[in-house]
Amino acid sequence: PLVMGIESSCDETGVGIVRGTELLAHALSSSMEQHVRFGGVVPEVASRAHLEAMVPTLEQAYAESGIRVQDVDAIAVTSGPGLTGALLVGVAAAKALALAHDKPLYGVNHLAAHVAVDQLEHGRFDQRVAALLVSGGHTELLLVDDIVTDITMLGQTIDDAAGEAFDKVARLLDLPYPGGPHIDRVARDGDPTAIAFPRGLTTGRDLDKHRYDFSFSGLKSAVARHVQHEQRMGRSISTADVAASFQDAVCDVLTKKTIAACVEHDVDTLIIGGGVAANGRLRHYAEERAAKAGIKVRIPRMGLCTDNGAMVAALGAEVVRRGVAPSALDLPVDSSMPVTHVVAA
Ligand code: ATP
Ligand code: MG
Ligand code: FE
């Protein structure tokens, strides 16, 4: 099926068009620069930016693909989870287009879309896969038996998201926002074993209770304490060592738990998505540990890992292919839409 997808859950306005697993348009506008001076995404600013970017981004997708909304079989839109005001802009646009052109409308889950997008890159997955989603807003470990009907949340962060931890630690180290890429770069000259930072929820009762959950706020506090302590002692800190040691702690835990989950659930394919999938250390550990366990790692190209409309279209195409009933035209947004809920009623 030929499907258009609209994404507006956070700071990216995205419109994608796919035919099955073939990518035809991938138009994107980001309000990231407008959030830089606040050190994080400001919901109200993001909503306004979506409003301004929506029509130009739609036009860009039409121009890229030579396809107009009149031509598509269905319109898919992220209806959750995400920022309510931001989601509302995409959903309102999708409803207007669906109504005006008499197209079926599908409100779909953003997390499932992060997984589905890999089909555009590496082809359909028919077997059970695991997915690690790591971005500024989420950190989830999913077991995907079927991308439309059967996704289980194995674990998630109990405090900060992985990307959020990178951003907060970057701030402590006087690195610009968003901090992930800067920590990644600076860490290349550092020693990942220089400082033994805590690995949250990896031992004793914490591990028993939170087998596949993550916690990064204790790690962030430990980095803050380390920096303050060194300053009090009148020592200059090695930004490279702190960055490398912090990054190692995050990526060690993420990959250790993920691979353990794959082994326990007899999964031989792991998909990694979200902006943190760009991280060099994460990729290194994932490849190394997955190879040892006989697991294949699939990471879509970065432009498809971060938020975009193509991922929504990819999931929409899968939903249409299965003959799922469309969502109602009064479809609400759901800021905390659970991953067990792939298509809104
Ligand atoms: P959402 O959570 O809704 O997917 P988002 O905008 O918060 O949206 P992304 O755009 O997917 O998330 O990713 C941005 C995050 O990824 C930021 O926190 C950023 O610091 C982090 N990031 C980007 N590149 C790297 C990297 N090389 N290493 C670590 N983190 C990175
Ligand atoms: Mg983003
Ligand atoms: Fe996302």
UniProtKB/TrEMBL annotation:
Positions annotated to bind substrate: 133-137, 167, 180, 184, 279
Main location: cytoplasm
Main EC class the enzyme belongs to: transferase
Cofactor dependency: Fe(2+)
CC cofactor note: Binds 1 Fe(2+) ion per subunit.
Residues involved in Fe cation binding: 110, 114, 307
Residues covered by the Gcp-like domain: 22-313
Annotated Gene Ontology cellular component terms: cytoplasm
Pfam families: TsaD
Localization per record: Cytoplasm
GO MF, one example: tRNA N(6)-L-threonylcarbamoyladenine synthase activity
Keywords associated with the record: Acyltransferase, Cytoplasm, Iron, Metal-binding, Transferase, tRNA processing
Highest taxon of source: Bacteria
SUPFAM superfamilies per the UniProt record, alphabetical: Actin-like ATPase domain (SSF53067)
PROSITE patterns for the chain: GLYCOPROTEASE (PS01016)
EC number of the protein: 2.3.1.234
GO BP terms: tRNA threonylcarbamoyladenosine modification
CDD domains, alphabetized: ASKHA_NBD_TsaD_bac
Coiled coil: none
Reaction(s) catalysed by this chain's protein: L-threonylcarbamoyladenylate + adenosine(37) in tRNA = N(6)-L-threonylcarbamoyladenosine(37) in tRNA + AMP + H(+)
Record's function text: Required for the formation of a threonylcarbamoyl group on adenosine at position 37 (t(6)A37) in tRNAs that read codons beginning with adenine. Is involved in the transfer of the threonylcarbamoyl moiety of threonylcarbamoyl-AMP (TC-AMP) to the N6 group of A37, together with TsaE and TsaB. TsaD likely plays a direct catalytic role in this reaction.
Family per record: Belongs to the KAE1 / TsaD family.
This protein's name: tRNA N6-adenosine threonylcarbamoyltransferase
